[in-house]
Input
Amino acid sequence: MNPSIVHALEPVLLVGGGKHRKKGFARAKVFTKKTVAADGGADWLVKHNITPDMVIGDFDSISSKVRSKLSPTRAILVNEQDTTDFEKCLSRIEAPLVIGVGFVGGRVDHQLASYHGLMRAPDRRCILVGPRDITFLAPPELSLDLARGSLFSLFPMGEMRARSAGLRWPVDDVMFAPGQAIGTSNEVLGPVSLSCSKPEMLVIVPLAALEAVVKGLLDADAGWPAHRVE
Output
């Protein structure tokens, strides 16, 4: 378990170095008070006249010009090579929710690495905001008040089961597993409830659902334990 660097009682906005940040940042900012940059994400923030509350990473992508402007207490070097900057940040932010922008919607390998990061820190609730969709790791029990007709996709990262209500195609009888059974392009019929057997289910819904997902994740009671790396 890594020691927490950022502590907050409200959701935290985490900005990465990928593309497609402007729209997601504007949507996510209304739910947050603190802003953390993952390495080179600090350059984008400073360019837009925003000073991050903290910058965390291995500092291989932040510019020397921006780094020189930051107080040493706001720039924390995590010198390890077996984790991404997203993982370095997520595991060190202690908050009820992290909303990440600049991690999905660009390079496919970076996007997959971000999903891997969600799996590595199942105890940290996090929403990854892209240009059209948002993605998050489902907690054990979740209720969402989504617009009727909305798309609702489930992508398992391991073999697992789930139960649902409020979807056109219930998932109760599905044995989910990558390469075997997934749940893309389901449709919302009413208030959605979802329960998952393991911390291995990614939920993907439209960007317009961000407010409902923020509320649903903050209201969810039970959480997953921290991932134990052998």
